[in-house]
Amino acid sequence: MAEPEIAVRMASDLAGGASADDALAAVQEIMPAIELADLDPLPAPDNLDAVLAGDIFQRHVLLAPQTRAGGSVAA
Fold it and tell me: How many Å separate Cα 32 from the centre of its chain?
């Protein structure tokens, strides 16, 4: 399964309790990404421990070469 994502590359670390403005200022760039997920095992109420042990389905991430500086998604 492929799932569209937005990847965020940070320019600096954030302390706990940072404001939204602090977080936006710490973003270096954003880029399109696709997460490739494996649905084995299929999630069910009685197997969530196995799902979590398998890294919540994520198998690979593809990052696009196009980036946008900063964290704005306007336009």
Answer: 10
* Residue 62 near residue 29, CB atoms below 8 Å: no
- Confidence check: pLDDT of 13 > 90: yes
Separation between Cα atoms, residue 5 and residue 65, nearest integer Å? 14
Task: Determine contact, residues 34/66, Cβ cutoff 8 Å.
Answer: no
27-69 pLDDT per residue, tens: 999 999 998 887 777 778 898 888 777 766 677 888 888 888 8
**What is the distance in angstroms between the CA of the first residue and the CA of the last residue of the chain?**
28
Question: Which residues, at least 6 apart from 61, have a Cβ–Cβ distance to it below 8 Å?
Answer: 5, 7, 33, 34, 35, 36
Does residue 16 have a pLDDT over 90? yes
